[in-house]
Fold this sequence. Notes:
alpha/beta; two-stranded antiparallel sheet
Amino acid sequence: MRARLTLGAVLQAAGVCALVLALASCATLVDDSAGRAGPPTAGSVLRAFKMTPELQDRILALDPHHVSEDDVRKTLALGPAPRIIKLHGGIFPTRLIMESFANFLVRMGYPSSEVRDPATKETSHSPYDSSSVLAGQIAWFYEHEGTRPMMIGHSQGGMQAVKVLYELAGKFDDSVDVVNPFTHASEGRTTIVDPLTGQVRPVTSLVLPYVSAVGAGGLALLLPNQWSMVTRLYDIPDSVEDFTGFAIGVDLIAWDGPHTRDLYNPLGSAHVRNVRLPGAYSHLYVVNTDQLGVEPGARNWINAWTPALTGKDPPAGIDQENIQWAADVWYSIKEHWVIEAQRFVRARRALPAG
């Protein structure tokens, strides 16, 4: 049986979260940046990815709204996959629990290389890191890999995800430096070469395909690193196409009660969904989902999930712990994985011969 913290222990930990910054990752950076500094030449990213014409046809034939496990393992996993940026909460246990979600993604068929930091090999980012640096790394990933990253944030990590969206929208500064994720150093430029079009564009023009936040708000807004989000957290800028904000029915940590008011709203063109999770879900453990990828019944239910099942648990006999959150997030990841892969294939096929 998995050990659990009591609510009192969680509250106590949240009250001293500023003191645990020293527990942030001290992993050694792997310097694999040789030959990858600076912008790639137009079309080079598209040409470098090896795909047979048959695989390209299969990718283009996929329906983003109905993606089976076979589609994932036999088609999508063989093509380009967006990097998934995960942001854990502000106290140490949440970092370990976010690793459970990373394991879930891999069990469901997502490429393991795209759920880890390429330098440190960690599975998530700290909410105490610089939001502008992370925005610069996201731009670098898109420029060098050809698919736009997604972000999944938990607790204070959810606030950080929205904060990064504000960085990408140019709301804090007119420009954002491109940051090499292998060295964590600025490349001294604020533009990227779009890998699909070859056009030079500013980092602040990048729009991500999908971002979600769960359990964001509450005590963490009192921390100095999140003061800039006090009046911004629930207003989603245009730097994301599809945003889902999850709230737990009764969440004392996020200061959220059993009401039906929509928390998140778009500032402009972003498509924003608000999803309320069962009150029995735990703020601390909501992303603890590794076990769902192991059990065939749970995995099958999650793979077959559609938005029509929002708010509904699976039949008896299937593990229901956190399954509504896992199914909703996995559906959106698959949807945008297909869309990003199809954008990549179409751009590749549009390249001039040679």
